[in-house]
Each structure stands twice: as structure tokens, then as C-alpha cells.
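3-oxoacyl-ACP reductase, Sphingobium cupriresistens LL01. C-alpha cells?
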Amino acid sequence: MNRCALITGGSQGLGAAIARAFHQAGYRVGVSDIDGGAAQALADDLDASGESAIGLTLDVRDQVAFEAARDTLIARWGSVEALVNNAVVTIVRPVLDISPDEFDRVLAVNLRGTFIGCQVLGRYFKDRGHGRIVNIASLAGQNGGTATGAHYAASKGGIITLTKVFARDLAPFGITVNAIAPGPLDLPSVRALVPEDKLEGIIAGIPVRHLGRPEFVASTAVHLASSEAAFANGAIWDINGGLLMR
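C-alpha cells:
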């Protein structure tokens, strides 16, 4: 256990699945979330001793806070090898009802947060000559979304573009940057946001006829963060049951 991963938005849902997968793969894990108490609760569940998991309070919109989270992990375990940008705000609202302030709030977490994370850890990885960044995008960023707000879809489309830019510019320094674009996942947050009757219609429209497993998305993130994944760069990994084929 000599590799360390920082997971943003890691206290629940897909983020928690990702944190668990990295820990099970032998990583020391920094579980970060704007809700520091929830992040620490998950870290305690992973390892109550704190030897291989800690919780961090992190508002991804704040560059200084991101740098502090990075430095905390370095001070504790000596290095950071991987970042998973997962922190997200999801709001379902018709496009004509979205206020400019709400639009800005969603993009500030989803897109600005990903940008800051890629920069802060990208600079550190550049100095080290190695690093892995995995961004969590979405099918909504590719097809405009069907059950999410336009601000969510726009932010995820932006993450896909940022992934390609950072991948191109950081590759010469031993850093890879990839994104995972999941379709609808079997998560409490999805079931809470989408009415049951509409969810049934969504599932019926998925070629494999079921929701995705967050654990598989998480294992894909671990795979992309591995040392062996050096030739995967700038890729958008589709995990959507066949909803988008290209």
C-alpha cells in the first residue's frame, strides 16, 4: 500500500464506491467532500485506524482548499499518485426554468472544480514526472441528457473537453488524463431525482434493460489510475448499456 488517491465528492453515491474500490485495490485514500464529517465517516468505515484512509473537507471550487487537501495527503503519506474528480451537483429542471445563478452554481462545482483539480494535481504530477487523473463525466455531456438539467449536461460536456486538453498538454510529463462517461446508474441519488414511472421508461430504453453498477464504474477508475494504463490518455470511457454507441 504505497500509492495514494484523492477522491472528490467521495462521501456518498458513486464517489463512495470509487473510494472503496481504490482502498480495496491497496491505495491509501483521501476521501474528500464539502461535507467533511461525511467524508470522515466513510474513511472511518474503510479504516478506523486512519492508516490507509482519511476524510478531508474540500470545496472543489476553492483552489487554496484543493492545494491544502493535496498537501495534507503528501504530509501524511509522502505522495499522491492519482486524482478522481467526482464532486458534482445534480439538479433536474427544465431549461427555460434555470436561473443564471443556478446555472453558475452547477458549473462552479462540476466544471470549475474539475478544472482546478486538474491544475492543482497536474502541477504536482508534472514535478514528479508521473500521475493519473480520472474525471467523471456523463452520458448527458454527450447527448444533452434526458433526465437531468441543461446546466448538468453542459458541465459534463465541458469536463469531456477539459479532459482532452489536459491529456494533450500533460502527457509529455508522464501524466494521463481520462474521463468516464456513465449512463444511468443504480444509485439512491438517481432514484431520488427521477420519478419511478419515468425511471422505468429510461430503463426500458437502455439496450441492456437495466441500470449500471456504480461498482463497475469505480473499478474502471482504478484501472485508469494504474501504472499499466500509460497508453490510455484523453479517452472518454463510455459505460452506458448501449445508449450511445460510436
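The mean pLDDT is 96.
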